[in-house]
Amino acid sequence: MVCFLLFTPQALKNGAQEQFVDARFVRKTDRYKGAVVIYHVVRQRPYAGSLTQWLKSRAEAYERKHKGTYIEIEGMDEAHFLERLEQGRRPDAYSFFSGSLYRDRLAAIPDLHHPYREGLFQTDRCIPYCFSGYCRLVKKPDGEQKTAYFADPILAARCEEDFVSAPEDRADVLYLDLRRAGDLIRYKDGFALSEIHSIDRFTDAVCWMGIDRETDTEKAKVILDFISFLLEPESQQTLNPLGLLSVRSDVKNVPPEAGLKQIFRAYETVLTVDPFLWNAQHDALEEDAALAANGDGEARERFRIRLNECIR
Q1: Average pLDDT, integer, range 76-93
Q2: Do 93 and 36 touch, CB atoms closer than 8 A?
Q3: Are the C-beta atoms of 134 and 177 separated by less than 8 Å?
Q4: Which of 94, 111, 170, 284 is 20 to 30 A (C-alpha) from 213?
Q5: Is the pLDDT of residue 8 over 60?
Q6: Which residue has the higher pLDDT, 22 or 259?
């Protein structure tokens, strides 16, 4: 025994000083443990349900796979979002629709190389993970359509339809975002038998995720990993019950209702805008669109040029 102790290798002596259980059974990891806060800015809403709740459920699924890491999702409208920023309350990351954020609020991110649907893209500051769109709601499918309602001037100027304008409750045809159309069909008397038709493949209702420029490196890694988790086919397939569409080209979008089949077919490929140019140009587009509606030809041409500059 004395000889054994005298000639024991130094490595065994060092090993005797370690905790046996830690050395044998505890997996070493440099993964961040703690909370990451993501603001979801609600500028658009899905056809049905809540994207905020969807994000929270995905966060819970992510946490189950990454013990000790917590993703806190806080949903808010744009007014409350801007109020928080004025108070200096910044999150670690943002979930937002095109037009809600300035580019310089976000940190640069690497290309994640996901197979995006044709017309969608990653920017150097944010990544798309779902989208919604617009529709033409025909209130009287068997009647003669004479009057139309447009939800906003940009939609009216973009569609360039030659209809007599009418209030929402008296129009025969309504041009709306999918959520408003869904709510009318579900809750408004007189719209239950309406038909939904596609307008085109344009949408600005793309939801992106980006990292705040002041977020530290460890949290940024978690956020990028969470974005990749949201973009996994299994996560993307859970968007369809809300009437939202997957951004992945290898995920088949299945409409939750038969009435949405035409919409989902139209959005198999997408025409959309740069999210930051849309932020910069949106007010001018609205102004030109309103003037164009009153017959201003020069404003209509300015609108067309501005819109084309925003489209990617």
Answers
A1: 95
A2: yes
A3: yes
A4: 284
A5: no
A6: 259
In the chain, the amino acid numbered 292 is A
pTM of the model: 0.88
pLDDT at 215 over 90: yes
Please answer whether residues 220 and 230 qualify as being in contact, where contact means their C-beta atoms are separated by less than 8 angstroms. Answer: no
- Answer whether residue 7 shows pLDDT above 80: no
Orientation of helix 297-310 relative to helix 275-293, angle to 10°: 160
Q: Phi then psi for 43, rounded to 5 degrees?
A: -95, -35
The DSSP code sequence of 14-75 is: HHHTS-HHHHHHPPP-----EEEEEEEE-SS--SSS-HHHHHHHHHHHHHHHSTTEEEEEEE
Based on the number of CB atoms within 10 Å of its own CB, is 120 exposed (0-12), middle (13-18) or buried (19 or more)?
buried
First to last CA, the chain: 78
- Which of the 8 DSSP states describes residue 177? E
Question: Coil, strand or helix: which one is 97?
Answer: strand
Q: How many angstroms separate the CA atoms of 250 and 69, rounded?
A: 29
Closest to 148 (Cα-Cα) out of 124, 115, 113, 172: 172
CA distance 203 to 176: 12
C-alpha span between 178 and 159 (Å, rounded): 16
* Strand bridging mode 164-165 / 206-211: unpaired
pLDDT at 169: 83
Query: Tell me, what's the pLDDT at 73?
Result: 98
Give the Cα separation of 98 and 128 in Å (integer): 10
Closest by CA position to 180, among listed 168, 198, 163, 164:
168
The sign one gets for the Cα dihedral 159, 162, 167, 173 is negative
